Amino acid sequence: INAEYGGLVFTSCYVANDTTLQTLARQLDAEIFSDSGNHASMIAGIANSRMPKHIFRHNDTDHLEELLAKSDPDRAKIVAFESVYSMTGTMSPIEEMCDIAHSYNALTFVDEVHAVGLYGDTGAGLAEERECGSKIDIVTGTLGKAYGLIGGYIASSDSLVDVVRSYGSGLIFTTSIPPSTAAGAVASIDVLASDEGRSLRQKHRESYSMLRDKLVTGGFPVMRCPSHIVPVLVGDPLKARLAMEHLFDRHRIYVQAINYPTVPRGSELLRFVATPYHTPQMMDY
Question: How many of the other CB atoms lie within 10 Å of CB of 250?
Answer without folding.
Answer: 8
